[in-house]
Amino acid sequence: SELREWRPVIYRKCTDTLWLLLFLIFWAGLMFITGYAVMAGAAERLVLGYDSFGNICGRKNTPVKGAPLSGQDMTNKKYVFFLNSCSLEMQSLKISSLSLCVSSCPQEQLNSLEDLQSFARNNGSCLCIYNLNVSSYTQNPKAAELCPTLPVPPSKTFTLFNRCVPQNPECYSKYAPVLISMVNEMDVFHRILSGILAGRDTVIGLSVLALAFSFVLVLAFRFIRTLLVHTLIALVVFGLLFVSGVLWWLYYDYRSDPSTELETEKENVKFLLGYAIFSTIVTVVLLSLILVLRKRLQFTVQLFRIVGKIIGRIPFLLFQPLWTFLILIVFWVFWVAVLLSLGTAGTAQTTSGGQVEYRALSGISYMAWYHFVGLIWTSEFILACQQMTIAGAVVTCYFNRNKNSPPPHPVLSSISVLFCYHLGTAVKGSFLITILRIPRIVLLYLYNILKQKESACAKCLFKCCFCWFWCQESCLRYFNQHVYTTTVINGTNFCTSAKDAVFILAKNSAKLASISCFGDFILFLGKVFVVCFTVFGGLMAFNYHRELQAWVVPLLLVAFFAYLMSHSFLSVFEVTADAMFLCFAVDMKTNDGSAEKPYFVDQELLVNLSDNRK
């Protein structure tokens, strides 16, 4: 039996305060990791490169104790030059040859110390140890040890890692395998970080493209018509088929490329195959659903007209996703910056000859996992706050007797109620989503470790577990929306609101499902539209930068951001519809339409909803 009566927007108290305290403690841990990463990390080393004395090329440096040649201004010296580029060897992921930061690479072969001296004077690029004066190249008896091995082969700059790559065929045949070995022996974590850094401009541009697509869709759904629904479905079908075709074409192109030697290129091939298979499965499933549900388009148009009328009373709801998006962008930029610093965290230790080596610190992997959990939990918390804000505004307007005089500033009022009373509930709901995501991540990690040893039965078991956790997460995400709306209506904590939501949904499950199911499907197609065309732009952009770059992982990051953006924007309609239906069910339960207990619902909405429920 039900323990309480529904009390729409009458009673209010702080909810789930212990969960809010737990979230603050968790963020204190994130701040500790941030401070540690900033102090111990140097993301520039990953891409810019550094010399043997601890100087990062292309920027000013701070001195390292015990290394007299460290702490130099390398702003104009952007390239790494190896003194013995024709006889490189790998020792514990370190190249044995001394390296320097130089302003330009030698374009012609240098056969003598006089040639080195002339090159330094004419080009301003010194190829000998920093403390050897240019005028001493031909006079210092130790110049042969402090300058590169002669002859110095002609070289050109390699853009991604800023290295001087020798062009002499004999030297290049020895240099290239060492560089390839160095990149291949880097762990996946660092290869992914280098790919993100190298393609950061493309990632930012694609994120802005996803933002534009999402905003256009929001405006389109606000004034939706039957023709617009048909156009959206046609674009989604075209996008799914086109992206799937491009993914299979790129996979075939990469696989048949005989020059694929690097581990990053091999990873690109594997990821492309996975993307192509996943995209094909999604395309087949969605096309089947579109074919089955095509006859309910007119009903969907009526549904969105009702939701559009409610949003018309609260026009600032359309701008709510923009603030959410900006907050998410700020958090993601902060998270990626900390991740890059954390991935390069190490202590500078001097060796013989005043050289510097960076050694990784212990415990970095645990911090990375903690930081990753922070990404999921905080992102879900931000989205939960948006859902509660929208639900609060809808509830405030719905349970207002005078429809001709809506309450002033319902969005600001909803934000005020959220921050004063219900942040803890948003924390708890987002934590439950995070808890269901962590096992999926752990399973994926184990799958990658054991994929060479596991049997076909184990693969099937892993995939079943992935599917089960994904279904659980989707159901919980949908249920959380109703819990947040119930919290806003009754002012109760998460567990009590969950019980109330279960009772009201159980009595109206068939009616609510028939009303909102297809509308949610159309909104999902809108999200697929944004992701498809953003990923297509990413495929075209990243495909031109294949070398030494795990660009498929940044592409996955772009797809994830695109989905979150589209979800953040289109959830205005989704949350508004779900909140409206729950308010309608509560209204029908607590009132009977008499003079003593009149309905809160607008008469036009009552007629439309009653017709749609039949």
Can you characterise this structure?
It is a multi-pass membrane protein. InterPro entries: Choline_transptr-like (IPR007603). The chain crosses the membrane at residues 20-43, 203-224, 231-252, 272-293, 314-338, 521-542, 548-565. This protein has 614 residues and is mainly alpha-helical. Among the domains are: 50-160, no CATH class; 224-294. Helices cover 66% and strands 5% of the residues. Strands 1-4 form a two-stranded antiparallel ribbon. The protein is elongated and about 105 Å long. The two termini are 27 Å apart.
Q: Gist?
A:
This protein has 614 residues and is mainly alpha-helical.
Overall spatial form = elongated
Walk across the major sheet and give the strand order: 1-4
Estimated helix fraction: 55-70%
Query: Unreliable segments (pLDDT under 50, ≥5 consecutive)?
Result: 180-190
Which class of secondary structure composition applies to the elements?
Answer: mainly alpha
Number of helices: 17
Instruction: Give me the strand/helix succession.
Output: HHEEEEHHEEHHHHHHHEEHHHHHH
Question: Total number of β-strand segments?
Answer: 8
Q: Proportion of β residues?
A: under 5%
Cα-atom radius of gyration: 30 Å
How would a crystallographer describe the biggest sheet? 2 strands, antiparallel
- First and last CA, distance: 27 Å
